[in-house]
Amino acid sequence: MENRSSKEQDAESSRITHQMLKSRTGEFDLESILFLKLRAVGLYELGCIGECLNLERLDLSNNHITHLGPLSSLKLMVALNVSCNRISALEPLAGCENLQTLNVAGNLLCSVETLHCLRGLRRLESVRLRDPVYNLSNPLCSNGAYRHSMRDTVPSVRIVDGERVTGCGSDLYHLCKDMDNSLKRFVGSGAVDVPKSVKPWVEEGYWELKPTQTTIMEETYKQFNEVVQECKELSKRADDTIAQAERALNIRHEPNSYVF
User: Which residues form a coiled coil (predicted)?
Assistant: First the structure.
């Protein structure tokens, strides 16, 4: 009996359950959950996550998830992080019509075709398939043109792996960078003698992407909004707890109440 109980507990902790969500968020109604972070908790199955119909931001990174089926009902979700899992298909995300940011770095996406299911997500702006900082990637990233394929597949996407691929200045940026690389190869082949005093036509580090003031402001504003939402959630939980305590005290002091 003890072994069976232990196995049941392991199975319970490996999938998302009502009890897990309630204990982690303090919410009794799953539809009240707006933000959820279940990072590195040993999850294999998403269980009842699909019942959190008003969920907006979800972090499931660093788990053992293989299937995203239950996420298809999360119509209001705007940000999803499922990096460092075992995902090989993204079809369920086609139902997440408000999705704007997606991180799937460190999974098993093998071809660009696995991204075709995202075509209908008209609000999707940022997709991360590779993260060099944490050494996360996908098999499809071995194709050097995968960023362009991502852009062609989902026209609304402006940022892939943190690099702007569409929008103001992006075409000129890539054109000049390609020209610079071509000149380096041409000179390096020995076809032209170049005096040692000649310097590159742009300064070193010129092509490195640097955050603009606008990007910094957008990120700061987003983080501020997240903090505000978390404060609202905490305030709501505190109000609910106080209300429950007041009801309990009122029942206890009613003249016709009996204690058994």
Answer: 217-248
